[in-house]
Amino acid sequence: MDRARNLPGETPIRIKANRLILEGNLSIPKNAKGIVLFAHGSGSSRFSPRNTFVAGELQKANLATMLFDLLTHDEERIDAVTAQLRFDIRLLADRLILATDWITHQSDTARLKIGYFGASTGAAAALLAAAERTDVVKAVVSRGGRPDLAGPALPKVKAPTLLIVGGNDPVVIDLNRKALKELKEDKDLVIVTGASHLFEEPGTLEEVSRLATKWFQNHLTRTD
How confident is the model at residue 5 (pLDDT cuts 50, 70, 90)? Predict the structure, then answer.
């Protein structure tokens, strides 16, 4: 499981629903017009160094961000052994929807247009949640994602969707190309040359951040 320090300026949050508690970090730059909720990938957490890097770049562009754990501490311990919950797309999407509804009811974030940034299985959860919150989710970006796992929800997604895949990740490229055909609204697929699944090569994560920032700025900060 990832472990890292919070980004500067982040506020710890706890989202509660009955006995469920999800922990996260919220950052709202001055003059923010949009907010991006992160849905992390398999076996990761809100401390994912790749997602925190992207979040930091989005914050520089005056976009608010929220990184949070899709699983509780107890569920993380179970998943570390079974690796099953990370593929429970319905469960992960429900947690993302819970966080989305929470955001819309907070005084300092209610006015912000909402976007999702999903990685790996988190991308499928983001697309499923976007299909069920079409009124508030205005953009989706997937990094090395498994959008195919969203299945029949793909044609129901209204939010403009950007799929980003590494050029050295042929299986995931194929899965993303197939998912792209199922998406009906504004959509694009960008293949980052020289990048593997985790975008660990020099400059590749920076390119992901650039692409994501541009996409979210276009769809979250413009005036309709």
Answer: very low
CATH of the domain at 160: 3.40.50.1820
How many structural domains does the chain have? 1
- Residues 215 and 189 sit within 8 Å (Cβ to Cβ): no
By residue range, what is the domain housing residue 89? 11-220
Identity of residue 74:
D
What's the token pair of residue 174? 């194929």
* Within-domain flag for 19: yes
Residue 92 CA to residue 40 CA, distance in Å, equals: 10
Ramachandran region, residue 105 (left: φ > 0; alpha: ψ -120 to 50; beta: rest): alpha
Q: How many of the other CB atoms lie within 10 Å of CB of 189?
A: 17
Q: Please state, in angstroms and rounded to a whole number, the distance separating the CA atoms of residues 168 and 200.
A: 11
Greater model confidence, 189 or 75: 189
> Which whole-number Å values give the CA distances from 163 to 4, 18, 111, 118, 119, in the listed order?
26, 34, 26, 10, 10
- Nearest CA to 120 among 90, 91, 144, 92? 144
Look-up of token digits 């996260």: 24
Identify the CA nearest to 21 among candidates 58, 59, 81, 72: 72
Distance from the first to the final alpha carbon of the chain: 40
d(CA 215, CA 182) in angstroms, rounded, equals 20
Cβ 120 vs Cβ 145: under 8 Å? yes
Q: How crowded is residue 61: how many other Cβ atoms within 10 Å of its Cβ?
A: 17
CA distance readout (Å), 30 to 15, 195, 199: 23, 33, 30
Confidence of residue 41 (pLDDT cuts 50, 70, 90): low
